Amino acid sequence: MYRVYDLHAWKRKEMYEFFRTYDDPFFGICTSLEVGALHAFCKESGHSFHLAALYHSLRAANASEAFRLRIRGEDVLLFDEIHCGTTVLHEDDTFSFCYIPMAPSLAEFERLGRDAIERQHRSRAVDPNAGQLNLIYYSTLPWTVFTGLKHAKRLQREDSIPRITFGKYSLQQGQLRIPISLEVSHALMDGVHAGRYLEALQELLLHPGE
Fold first, then answer.
1. Do 7 and 76 contact (CB within 8 A), yes or no?
2. What global pTM score does this model have?
3. Within 13 Å of residue 38, how many CA atoms lie on the same side as its CB?
4. Which residues pair with 172 in a beta bridge?
5. Which is nearest to 163 in space by CA: 141, 187, 135, 189?
């Protein structure tokens, strides 16, 4: 469900209109987050680290109004809930995409995620849910500790779906850390919103069982 956002009452209206004209209004941040607590929690409980990271990332995104805004035509839509679109690697090193709905608990999200990934391994449809707006596009690069990343994208001014990529976690100065790349539309949010999202996600990763 969604409602059409009241642009005239939006304090960012002028910034929205300014960046709305850009051919590529996305800005990106690359940083790393501490995931030692999440890793230990998943090891002890048997949860998938990958799906747990996606779940907590979605929790942080759904708690932010800015991350639930999308552009459609001349309207800005505010969705009630945002879901997951993620890459799936196949045995022959090709990949496609699958979609996992948000869930009220990690256990339910993991169940839905495992089912969705298994279906995608069977179907291999390149993009079976193209056109859905209430998503975040996720990728995972578990082979590298990256410090920068750029996504392929069509230069369409209506494109407003955030992209989040996780890399390979590694031990750094006594902390288990994972690189994360975040790309979001400057028409819909600013650095303060991206920064607060990353702070909220870090807090969830430090307390994954709560």
1. yes
2. 0.95
3. 25
4. 175
5. 135
Q: Is 206 exposed, middle or buried (0-12, 13-18, 19+ CB in 10 A)?
A: middle
Residue 122 structure tokens:
């069977």
For 33-54, write each residue's pLDDT tens digit: 999 999 999 999 999 999 999 9
Q: What is the largest CA-CA distance in the chain?
A: 51
Following DSSP, what letter does each residue of the chain receive, concatenated? -EEE--GGG-TTHHHHHHHHT-SS-EEEEEEEEE-HHHHHHHHHH---HHHHHHHHHHHHHHT-GGGGEEEETTEEEEES--EEEEEEE-TTS-EEEEEE---SSHHHHHHHHHHHHHHHHHH--S-TTTT--SEEEEEE-TT---S---------TT----EEEE---EEETTEEEEEEEEEEETTT--HHHHHHHHHHHHHHHHSTT-
Here the tokens at position 103 are: 């869930």
